[in-house]
Every structure is written in C-alpha cells, then in structure tokens.
C-alpha cells in the first residue's frame, strides 16, 4: 500500500445512514491518512466546514496527496456525480532561509577595501571597491580603485576580514 494514494471503502458504519456524508468520519479518515490530528503539524489545518452537504458516497472515498509537497489532501467520492474536496495540511514552521542562517556580511557593496594578491612567498595589495556584499570566506566581485565599471579589471576575491579581500595565485 502506498501512502501517496489510499482507498478507503465506505459503508453504513463509516459514513452513516443519513442522506449526507458523515463529515466527522471524513475528518478521521484524513487524520489517519496524514498520520496527524487536525490542527497538528502534518494534519488538516481545520475540520471540514460543517455547512457542507455532501451526498453519501456509495462506493469508495479515495484519499491522495494533491502534490509531492504534501500541502493538501484530495478527498474524492468515486460515485457517478461524486464530489471532490481539497483539505489543506498544516506545514511545519519555515526553516530559516540560507540567507538568514549564514554569517553576517562584513563587507558591503561599495565598501573601500584592500585587494591582496598572494602567491608563494609574496603579497601585493592595492585599494579597491567591493561590487558585492558577503561574510568572511565568501567570494565576491571587486574592482581595483583605478578600474572603471564593466572593465575587464573586475575580479573575484575571497573576503579575509572587514576591509580585506584576497586573490590567491596558484
């Protein structure tokens, strides 16, 4: 049995004997399908609206995920002229984005900085300007102070500390 699509057989005990579908039973089926109760992370956001008047399903009720992201459950009656519901699922709290989780920027776009070209036993530096922002260790675009915008003198350098970037030579 696949969790991405589960068929639930209905009957008098599941949906009741009335003219309309038992919404409490459908809520329980959705909770069983998602593995979480209503209102909990991974479960239906809210119970079905009790104003719904769905025809009682004579055959089966199919439950499946609407998308691979499991953001809602599709509940469908397979009867001729049946119905289909989309039940939203409570997603987990958003994880901090990569931008929020990374180290703070120590160099900002437009900052004056020293561009150090380093090689085996030597270092040469010149003044420059940061064309991008970034934290320590990030590679950003920089331009020597004598360079013009869009010139081929723009290069990528690694941030060493605030005000200093490095271009290591092999």
Automatic annotation (TrEMBL):
Keywords: Cell projection, Cilium, Flagellum
Highest taxon listed in the record's lineage: Bacteria
Pfam families: ChapFlgA (PF13144)
Domain Flagella basal body P-ring formation protein FlgA SAF: 45-167
InterPro entries recorded: SAF_FlgA (IPR017585)
Protein name per Swiss-Prot or TrEMBL: Flagella basal body P-ring formation protein FlgA
């Amino acid at each position: 049995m696949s969790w991405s699509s589960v068929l639930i057989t209905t009957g008098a005990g599941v949906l009741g004997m009335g003219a309309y579908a038992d919404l409490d039973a459908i809520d329980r089926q959705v909770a069983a399908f998602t593995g979480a109760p209503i209102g909990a992370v991974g479960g239906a956001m809210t119970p079905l609206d009790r104003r719904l008047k769905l025809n009682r399903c004579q055959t089966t009720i199919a439950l499946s995920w609407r998308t691979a992201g499991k953001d809602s459950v599709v509940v469908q009656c397979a009867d001729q002229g049946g119905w289909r519901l989309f039940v939203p699922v409570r997603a987990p709290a958003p994880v901090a984005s990569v931008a929020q989780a990374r180290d703070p920027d120590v160099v900002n776009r437009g900052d004056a900085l020293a561009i150090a070209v380093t090689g085996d036993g030597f270092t040469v530096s010149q003044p420059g300007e940061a064309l991008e922002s970034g934290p320590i260790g990030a590679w950003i675009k920089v331009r020597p102070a004598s360079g013009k915008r869009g010139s081929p003198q723009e290069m990528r350098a690694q941030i060493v500390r605030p005000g200093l970037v490095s271009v290591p030579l092999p």
